[in-house]
Design a protein that fits this description.
single chain, Alpha-Beta Plaits, 4 domains, seven-stranded mixed sheet, 24 helices, 45% helix
């Protein structure tokens, strides 16, 4: 078909395919919102994350856990600040940790010491009691728990946590904010589109002054629509200044970097070009919200955990914390620091910070493209137009292969760039579009362009596998049910001892057994491109080479026969478990000219094969019992499969045939045969030559030796008995070495 004819025939299909592409383009441009794509994007991101995460424990970062045990042993939260001061002193003085971060807020004063009540008494009832005031002044340093805690933070690498409000109005702010990471005027406000906060809840001023730094710990503004935390803001804006996240502040202390800097593509400050944050030698990729994807290591407990109570009680070994980055947080459900993440629905918030800190230190934060929308639109256009033009020109099989190939290439690129370059490519829309276009074209082809295929299916569907019907649909006019002569291979398979089996089972059980046997055998034949001729009770007849030409019909038939034996062996345990007897089959194969077509009567027709070649195949199946083998092929089939190794069983004259033929048992592919197989064949070949030369004594010695080496082979006992017979009844000097069978 020329190009003009192609477009004329498929114009409607191409136009509709391009219409399918349009919504994906509009979604990528942000003009329409296809929620399903966002859900698929999130799902695919989570799958990649789970498949590639290391699932190891990072012992550099230790979670000091305010767990249920700590609450039971040390009292309900919040603990007195002097106890927290003791905790800080233990960590730095005794355990020699490197950096400490608090994933919690200290916005309210600690009144647990009673100092406030005593001061009130000194101003009221005991205002004139000088001794009381002197005693109170002396006790005040011991009772001011907030100051004790603040003093424990001095000159130590400690980061406190706080959070921002995003209600749209600046109200309810408490505590003291740290100095901003970047003050207004030091950056172009149009180039940084960070989340804007309306207020804050921060720590007490004396705590903030004495801490080395602080960072916000709430990522809620950027939680995804499904409630899952996949990314977190590294900078937020308040009153025109930029403030850093807790994880960023802790990483900065670990790396000994005084401040964070903004990084722009090409060094130009443009509203779309803020791409990363500079933290010394570390480059942290961020998106348009100045947020980073959290590089989760695995499920909960991907970092070392230490119970805060064990630390306070002196039960924690020194080496567990020495030189570590310690994050104080909680996994106690009552304290509500649990999040939904791609790893699991309930995940400790403190461990989200730990993952991000580890990712910053290791430099393995995932990165998006600088211009994801442009890339996604271009990719959608290229792939959409390609498939709109290509799919109508291809058969369903090739169209599927093309679609699967594109999906595979994009998926591999998806994972390779993720794993090796830490790059997150926007490919989900393209993958989904490929699937939709493929399904659309399949449906269009089926309902609009598949009349010829449906005709072929009605004619041949009961005989051949669907894959061959698809091939036939490419040129329906080339196939007919009329009789014709072809070079083909026929297969007969029959159950051994079926009468005995049927007598031992109830009719319903026998029916079920035969269905369980015939179904996988049929699947094997179809898998090897065979055509089912008929089921004859406990037997199967199949052929290769029609209706679809098969240049390797003998090889496909032989592979099918061997797989039938293997699959049947695998079914024996299932049969035994159901109380059914074991099933063994014999298989006969013959190749040659035979007549194939729709044959029968005016009442019933069947697509079948006939001729002497077919009859011989049936005889060979019957001979499997005589020779104690499961498969027998004729010399014609053997000659058509030269890459297989065969054992010559005999030369026989079957009933109705004057000319002897050689029959063989297939052993294995020549390239896969073992040394023991070759050794047995050589010994057997020598024995068979002596047998045909009527050297009975030497032949007998060989067969006796073969029986000793391979006691399970019925064939060698068969020849030993024949030799014994021929010694008494000589076949004559004109004997051609063949054996005559007078029964079917």
């Amino acid at each position: 078909m020329n190009r003009r004819g192609f477009f004329r025939r498929h114009a409607n299909r191409i136009a509709l395919s391009l219409l399918v592409v349009l919504p994906f383009l509009l979604n990528a441009l942000g003009i329409v919102d296809l929620g399903v794509i966002e859900r698929i994007k999130n799902y695919s991101y989570d799958v990649r994350l789970r498949w590639t995460m290391p699932n190891t424990i990072d012992k550099r970062i230790v979670i000091l856990d305010i767990d249920e045990k700590s609450l039971q042993e040390q009292g309900h939260w919040p603990w007195p600040r002097n106890k927290l001061a003791h905790l800080v002193d233990l960590l730095f003085d005794q355990y020699k940790i490197d950096v400490l971060g608090f994933d919690m807020l200290f916005a309210e004063r600690d009144e647990s010491s009673g100092l406030r009540s005593l001061q009130q008494l000194a101003r009221t009832e005991l205002a004139g009691n000088t001794n009381f005031k002197l005693a109170l002044d002396k006790l005040r340093p011991q009772l001011d728990f907030d100051q004790i805690f603040a003093d424990s933070l001095k000159a130590r690498r400690v980061a406190l946590g706080y959070y921002f409000h995003h209600e749209g109005r600046q109200s309810g702010s408490v505590g003291a904010l740290p100095a901003p990471s970047l003050r207004r005027g030091s950056f172009d406000p149009h180039s940084v589109r960070a989340t804007v906060a309306s207020g804050f809840s921060a720590n007490l001023p004396e705590l903030q002054i004495n801490a080395a730094t602080s960072g916000f710990f709430n990522a809620t503004p950027l939680v995804d629509a499904d409630g899952v935390f996949r990314r977190t803001p590294l900078l937020q804006m308040y009153d025109g200044d930029l403030y850093e996240a807790l994880a960023l502040s802790v990483a900065r202390l670990v790396l000994r970097v005084p401040a964070v800097e903004l990084g722009y593509a090409g060094g130009e400050q443009s509203p779309v070009n803020l791409e990363f944050l500079d933290l010394g030698k570390r480059r942290i990729p961020v998106d348009s919200d100045v947020a980073a994807l959290i590089p989760y290591r695995g499920k909960e407990h991907s970092f070392a955990y230490v119970s805060a109570s064990d630390l306070l009680n002196g039960k924690t070994p020194l080496q567990a914390l020495q030189g570590a980055i310690v994050l104080v947080g909680t996994t106690a459900p009552g304290l509500m620091d649990l999040r939904s993440t791609p790893m699991q629905e309930v995940y400790p918030g403190v461990e989200m910070h730990a993952n991000l800190i580890a990712g910053i230190i290791d430099g393995n934060i995932k990165e998006g493209l600088a211009h994801p929308v442009g890339f996604e639109v271009e990719l959608l256009l290229v792939i959409g137009v390609l498939l709109a033009l290509a799919l109508p020109a291809l058969s369903p099989l090739r169209a599927t292969v093309l679609s699967v190939a594109l999906i595979t290439v994009l998926t591999v690129a998806y994972f390779l760039t993720w794993k090796s370059a830490n790059l997150v490519l926007p490919l989900v829309s393209s993958l989904f579009m490929i699937a939709v276009l493929s399904v659309f074209n399949m449906a269009y082809g089926f309902f609009v362009e598949s009349r010829g295929k449906r005709m072929l299916t009605s004619l041949f569907g009961q005989y051949v596998p669907p894959e061959l019907v698809d091939e036939m649909a490419k040129d329906p006019g080339a196939y007919t049910l009329a009789g014709e002569s072809k070079e083909m291979t026929v297969l007969f398979a029959d159950v051994r001892g079926f009468t005995t089996i049927s007598e031992g089972l109830a009719p319903a059980q026998l029916t079920q057994l035969m269905n369980e046997f015939l179904t996988p055998m049929t699947q094997v034949i179809h898998r090897h491109r065979g055509t089912i001729d008929k089921y004859m009770g406990d037997a199967i007849m199949a052929f290769w080479g029609a209706p679809v030409f098969d240049g390797q019909h003998a090889r496909h038939a032989l592979l099918a026969a061997m797989d039938m034996i293997a699959d049947l062996d695998a079914l024996q345990d299932q049969f035994k478990a159901r109380g059914w007897p074991p099933i063994k089959i014999g298989v006969g194969l013959n190749s040659g000219e035979m007549t194939v077509g729709n044959m029968g009567s005016e009442f019933r027709l069947a697509y079948t094969v006939m001729g002497d070649t077919v009859n011989l195949g049936s005889r060979l199946e019957g001979l499997t019992k005589e020779y104690g083998v499961q498969i027998i092929v004729s010399e014609y089939t053997r000659a058509a499969v030269p890459d297989f190794l065969f054992l010559e069983l005999d030369r026989v004259r079957v009933k109705g045939k004057d000319r002897p033929i050689a029959i063989y048992q297939p052993i294995c592919l020549v390239s896969q045969c073992k040394e023991t197989d070759m050794e047995e064949l050589n010994l057997y070949g020598a024995a068979l030559r002596l047998y045909r030369e009527q050297n009975w004594l030497a032949a007998e010695n060989f067969f006796v030796d073969l029986q000793r080496r391979f006691p399970g082979k019925h064939l060698y006992r068969l020849y030993a008995k024949r030799i014994e017979f021929f010694r008494e009844h000589s076949p004559g000097t004109d004997w051609d070495g063949s054996f005559v069978f007078t029964t079917k």
